[in-house]
Specification:
By secondary structure, the protein is an alpha+beta fold. About 20% of the residues lie in helices and about 30% in strands. The longest helix is centred in the N-terminal third of the chain and has 19 residues. The chain is flat, with a radius of gyration of 42 Å. This is Peptidase family M23.
């Protein structure tokens, strides 16, 4: 049998040259000179640096320097002209901008000539009049009065909105002691009208320029999702229209009963100008469709005035008036009336109202007509508003971020009295709503003060015709 031979050992450099080569390979010749200053490694790196510098200096090219062209020095008159026209710091003696000496061809003017025309704009301020605004722009009193008279024939002067921009072109004046005459005046007199005043000789003529308006109503439909307010705003509905929709729906059913799978449906007045501006008017239709596609609610505005003439009716012609809205804020009930474990104090305690969770800053509405008894800070309630109502009722609204009314103010049902917050003893943004009957706390959800009125005849037929017309508008 063959004997086992042990594995060969690693090769070891046998000669001095091999040992030197191995040492050179494993030596750090360029260490960081910022570390271990004064050590053996540091001195080795310093020596390497000096050697490299010396090698670079010894191998430098022997080329002679290339001399640049030096312009001759400027003196005398040429120096003054150069300094006058040159750009240099004032600290170095520059005289940039100084006029050169006039020659014999220069003729001195007795006065500075005026521009033949000037263009300017003036903005109509709050409580301002057209004549005063033109006067501030330098128009003479008599001519400003003539322009106001011309404009009043096309639009009432008190209907001109603050912020209206007047574009003026002023002509040449006979002398410096007289105001410039108006050559042209243009401005937006109304949503559907531009006006221009032009000069023709000594006369001023008014030119009406109507703007085409598309008055197709705004019809928006979408899922309720996380909340009515947020979803409708995301769909492009103006906040004022959203508030009107919520108030109309809350008068018929609690907002908390609106499900995430429901579909809101609304129609509002809209005017779209040919120039691109859009104005959205008041809400005309408020509808709600459940997840199965069945209509839960249909409300149509009937009349343009507040009160009975401006109420929302259902297709049967019924007008419902409730003293209390379903809830004073758009949200969901997070804590009901009765005994509960207090979230902060940690023991059972009577909860004298209901908590309604809502996004921070959501508007809070008065539940019924009343008078503000208190508006301010009130201990654990934080920012608190208390309203006194007829029939011995009172209601309170706590944890507001901001109060919108003051004590002694009379408020109407649906009027904004504050905004949702988390002041006082609160764990998050919500509204604490309390109701008292003759000073005794009662469940707000158990209160129902409502009355139903029914119309018939021509009013009912007109209501149904309006409903059909509104629903025929294409929805987006």
């Amino acid at each position: 049998m063959r004997a086992l031979v042990p594995a060969a050992a690693p090769l070891v450099p046998s000669s001095i040259a091999d040992r030197l080569r191995d040492a050179a390979v494993h030596t750090d010749w360029v260490p960081d000179l910022g570390q271990n200053i004064g050590s053996r490694t540091w001195w080795r790196g310093a020596a390497t640096c000096v050697a490299l510098i010396g090698a670079a200096w010894m191998t430098r090219p022997g080329m002679p320097p290339v001399l640049g062209y030096a312009p001759p020095a400027v003196t005398g008159v040429a120096l003054e002209e150069t300094r006058t026209q040159g750009i240099a710091p004032l600290g170095l003696g520059a005289t940039t901008g100084r006029r050169m000496a006039a020659s014999g061809l220069v003729r001195h003017l007795t006065e500075t000539p005026e521009r033949p025309q000037i263009d300017l704009t003036v903005t109509l301020g709050g409580g301002d009049t057209l004549s005063n605004a033109l006067g501030r722009a330098g128009v003479g009193m008599n001519e400003a009065a003539r322009v106001a008279t011309l404009v009043s024939g096309a639009v009432a002067l008190d209907q001109l909105k603050p912020g209206t921009i007047l574009s003026l072109t002023m002509g040449r004046r006979p002398s410096r002691l007289q105001p410039r005459p108006i050559e042209k005046l243009t401005f937006r007199a109304g949503f559907d009208l531009n006006l221009a005043v032009n000069r023709a000789g000594d006369a001023l003529l008014l030119d009406r320029q109507p703007i085409s308006i598309d008055r197709a109503p705004l019809h928006v439909r979408g899922l309720v999702g996380d909340g009515l307010y947020r979803s409708m705003r995301a769909a492009g509905v103006p906040a004022r229209v959203v508030e009107s929709y919520i108030k109309a729906v809350a008068a018929r059913m609690p907002i908390g009963e609106v499900g995430a799978a429901d579909t809101f449906d609304l129609v509002a007045d809209q005017a779209r100008a040919a120039t691109g501006e859009v104005e959205v008017g008041q809400l005309q239709y408020a509808g709600l469709v459940d997840a199965a596609g069945k209509r839960r609610l249909q409300l149509v505005r009937w009349g343009d005035k507040d009160g009975e003439g401006g109420s929302f009716m259902d297709p049967a012609g019924q007008v419902e008036r409730r003293g209390f809205m379903g809830m004073p804020v758009a949200g969901r009930v997070t804590s009901t009336f009765g005994y509960r474990m207090h979230p902060l104090l940690g023991f059972m305690r009577m909860h004298k109202g209901i908590d309604i969770g809502a996004p921070y800053g959501s508007p809070i509405y008065a539940a019924i007509d009343g008078v503000v008894q208190f508006a301010g800070r009130s201990g654990g309630y934080g920012n608190f508003v208390k309203l006194a109502h007829a029939g011995g009722y009172a209601s309170g609204y706590g944890h507001m971020s901001r109060i919108a009314v003051s004590s002694g103010t009379r408020v109407q049902r649906g009027q904004v009295i504050g905004y949702v917050g988390s002041t006082g003893m609160s764990t998050g943004p919500h509204l604490h709503w309390e109701v008292w009957k003759n000073g005794v706390p009662v469940n707000p959800r158990a209160i129902s003060l409502s009355s139903v009125q029914t119309v018939s005849g021509n009013t009912l037929r007109g209501l149904k015709a309006k409903l059909a017309r509104l629903l025929s508008a294409p929805a987006r």
